[in-house]
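C-ALPHA COORDINATES:
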Amino acid sequence: MNILKRKRTSKCTSGALVHEYTLSEPVDMSFIGLLGSFGSVEKKVMGDLVMFTFQKDEWFTLKGMSDDPIFYTTCQKSDSKAAEEFIDNLLTTYNNQQQEDGSGV
Protein backbone atom coordinates (compact mmCIF):
# COMPACT_ATOMS: atom_id res chain seq x y z
CA MET A 1 0.00 0.00 0.00
CA ASN A 2 1.44 3.34 -1.09
CA ILE A 3 0.32 6.94 -1.32
CA LEU A 4 -0.71 7.80 -4.88
CA LYS A 5 -1.84 11.35 -4.16
CA ARG A 6 -1.90 13.81 -1.27
CA LYS A 7 -3.67 17.13 -1.51
CA ARG A 8 -4.80 19.81 0.88
CA THR A 9 -8.55 20.02 0.59
CA SER A 10 -9.45 22.75 3.07
CA LYS A 11 -8.52 24.79 6.11
CA CYS A 12 -10.70 24.68 9.21
CA THR A 13 -11.73 27.83 11.06
CA SER A 14 -9.41 26.68 13.86
CA GLY A 15 -6.48 26.91 11.44
CA ALA A 16 -6.17 23.13 11.10
CA LEU A 17 -5.38 21.75 7.64
CA VAL A 18 -7.34 18.92 6.04
CA HIS A 19 -5.47 16.63 3.62
CA GLU A 20 -6.91 13.95 1.37
CA TYR A 21 -4.76 10.87 0.79
CA THR A 22 -5.40 8.44 -2.06
CA LEU A 23 -3.81 5.03 -1.56
CA SER A 24 -2.85 2.35 -4.06
CA GLU A 25 -5.21 -0.08 -2.30
CA PRO A 26 -8.40 0.26 -0.26
CA VAL A 27 -8.15 0.49 3.52
CA ASP A 28 -8.80 -2.92 5.09
CA MET A 29 -9.52 -4.11 8.62
CA SER A 30 -5.81 -4.86 9.21
CA PHE A 31 -5.01 -1.21 8.54
CA ILE A 32 -7.79 -0.04 10.86
CA GLY A 33 -6.58 -2.49 13.53
CA LEU A 34 -3.02 -1.20 13.22
CA LEU A 35 -4.22 2.35 13.91
CA GLY A 36 -5.27 1.18 17.38
CA SER A 37 -1.60 0.58 18.20
CA PHE A 38 -0.87 4.29 17.79
CA GLY A 39 -3.89 6.01 19.33
CA SER A 40 -7.63 5.74 19.79
CA VAL A 41 -9.97 4.45 17.08
CA GLU A 42 -13.74 4.87 16.97
CA LYS A 43 -15.57 2.58 14.55
CA LYS A 44 -19.09 2.62 13.19
CA VAL A 45 -20.27 -0.46 11.31
CA MET A 46 -22.48 0.27 8.32
CA GLY A 47 -23.40 -3.05 6.73
CA ASP A 48 -20.19 -4.53 5.32
CA LEU A 49 -18.29 -1.24 5.71
CA VAL A 50 -16.64 0.35 8.73
CA MET A 51 -16.33 4.11 9.13
CA PHE A 52 -13.44 4.96 11.43
CA THR A 53 -11.93 7.95 13.17
CA PHE A 54 -8.41 7.71 14.54
CA GLN A 55 -6.99 10.24 16.98
CA LYS A 56 -3.35 10.49 18.03
CA ASP A 57 -3.02 12.54 21.18
CA GLU A 58 -4.67 15.91 20.58
CA TRP A 59 -2.82 16.92 17.42
CA PHE A 60 -3.79 14.49 14.65
CA THR A 61 -6.99 12.92 13.28
CA LEU A 62 -7.43 10.43 10.42
CA LYS A 63 -10.88 9.51 9.08
CA GLY A 64 -11.94 7.03 6.45
CA MET A 65 -13.95 3.98 5.53
CA SER A 66 -13.02 0.36 4.94
CA ASP A 67 -12.80 -0.73 1.29
CA ASP A 68 -12.07 2.88 0.24
CA PRO A 69 -8.58 3.99 -0.89
CA ILE A 70 -9.17 7.57 0.33
CA PHE A 71 -8.80 8.91 3.86
CA TYR A 72 -8.61 12.40 5.36
CA THR A 73 -6.27 13.82 7.96
CA THR A 74 -6.58 16.92 10.11
CA CYS A 75 -3.76 18.65 11.99
CA GLN A 76 -2.46 22.12 12.71
CA LYS A 77 -0.12 23.58 10.11
CA SER A 78 2.73 23.48 12.64
CA ASP A 79 2.24 19.68 12.91
CA SER A 80 2.10 18.99 9.14
CA LYS A 81 5.61 17.54 8.92
CA ALA A 82 5.02 15.25 11.91
CA ALA A 83 1.70 14.15 10.36
CA GLU A 84 3.39 13.26 7.05
CA GLU A 85 6.07 11.31 8.91
CA PHE A 86 3.41 9.48 10.90
CA ILE A 87 1.53 8.45 7.72
CA ASP A 88 4.78 7.26 6.12
CA ASN A 89 5.68 5.22 9.22
CA LEU A 90 2.14 3.85 9.45
CA LEU A 91 2.20 2.62 5.84
CA THR A 92 5.69 1.14 6.26
CA THR A 93 4.55 -0.75 9.36
CA TYR A 94 1.38 -1.94 7.59
CA ASN A 95 3.33 -3.12 4.52
CA ASN A 96 5.87 -4.95 6.70
CA GLN A 97 3.07 -6.71 8.60
CA GLN A 98 1.37 -7.72 5.34
CA GLN A 99 4.64 -9.22 4.07
CA GLU A 100 5.18 -11.10 7.35
CA ASP A 101 1.63 -12.42 7.22
CA GLY A 102 2.17 -13.56 3.63
CA SER A 103 -0.58 -11.28 2.36
CA GLY A 104 1.75 -9.45 0.01
CA VAL A 105 1.69 -5.73 -0.62
